[in-house]
């Protein structure tokens, strides 16, 4: 697939994304993160499944693969999604929700990694990124749980969430099969001691170790 074809595919996939409330009890949540090898030729993915809201580790899976798609801003999910799905295929448990270190609707074409994966996993997926990709916002208050909306022109595409008092906020957006309110509420419940939600924080630690081996 060429970048031009990928952009057209994003438009088609974005039309299938649904933002609907999560209407079931969440017992397991999967945190997912990716990392590239030093030579940028391979990519690894780790999923850490935790009990919710206890945040106890239940399962860890990992996968690696050769990178088959070039680096193009706005099309990173085409590099990352295949290995993420490969890791998901190894799961013995079935997370009720996935939390991804990346964007969901907060993307120029409304199809960040969280939205892209949600369509293929057919599960609620939340994007929680460490930095903004697009959009404008007002800085949230300094206390934990202070939140403002992230806008692309007049459209709300995400939320800027202070997960710890006096610490930089994170950028939360709905991926698929969840609402922005769901995404913010679940993200905050997963932030027990640190700026990042525990599921993606642990996944980041594990994938950092993995990338040295792939």
Describe it.
This protein has 214 residues and is α+β, with helices and mostly antiparallel strands. Helices cover 27% and strands 27% of the residues. The chain has an eight-stranded mixed β-sheet, sandwiched between helices. α2 (77-88) runs parallel beside α3 (113-121). The longest helix is centred in the C-terminal third of the chain and has 13 residues, at 198-210.
- Lateral arrangement of strands in the main beta sheet: 3-2-1-4-5-8-7-6
Number of strands: 8
Q: Any idea of the CATH topology? A: archaeoglobus fulgidus dsm 4304 fold
Low-pLDDT residue spans: none
Helix-strand pattern, N to C?
Answer: HEEEHEHEEEEHH
What is the 3D form? globular
Report the end-to-end length measured between terminal Cα atoms.
24 Å
Percent of residues in helices comes to: 25-40%
CATH class categorisation? Alpha Beta
**Tally the helices: what do you get?**
5
- The gyration radius over C-alpha positions equals 16 Å
- Number of discrete domains: 1
- Structural class by helix and strand composition: alpha+beta
CATH architecture: 2-Layer Sandwich
How many strands, what sense, and barrel or not for the largest sheet?
Answer: 8 strands, mixed
Average pLDDT metric:
97
- Specify the CATH homologous superfamily: archaeoglobus fulgidus dsm 4304 superfamily
Strand content: 25-35%
Oligomeric form: single chain
């Amino acid at each position: 697939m060429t970048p031009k074809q990928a952009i057209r595919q994003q438009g088609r996939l974005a039309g299938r994304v649904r933002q609907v409330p999560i209407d079931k009890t969440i017992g397991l949540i999967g945190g997912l993160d990716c990392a590239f090898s030093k030579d940028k030729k391979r990519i690894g993915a780790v999923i850490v499944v935790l009990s919710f809201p206890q945040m106890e580790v239940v399962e860890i899976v990992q996968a690696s693969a050769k990178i088959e798609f070039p680096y193009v801003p706005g099309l990173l999910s085409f590099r990352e999604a295949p290995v993420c799905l490969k890791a998901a295929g190894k799961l013995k448990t079935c997370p009720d929700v996935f939390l991804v270190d990346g964007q969901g609707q907060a993307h120029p074409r409304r199809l960040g990694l969280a939205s892209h994966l949600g369509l293929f996993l057919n599960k609620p997926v939340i994007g929680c990124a460490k930095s903004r990709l697009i959009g404008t916002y007002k800085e949230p208050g300094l206390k934990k749980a202070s939140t403002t909306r992230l806008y692309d022109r007049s459209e709300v595409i995400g939320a800027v969430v202070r997960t710890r008092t006096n610490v930089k906020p994170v950028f939360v957006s709905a991926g698929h099969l969840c609402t922005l309110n769901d995404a913010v509420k679940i993200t905050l419940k997963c932030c027990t001691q640190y700026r990042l939600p525990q599921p993606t924080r642990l996944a980041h630690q594990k994938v950092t170790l993995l990338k040295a081996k792939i």
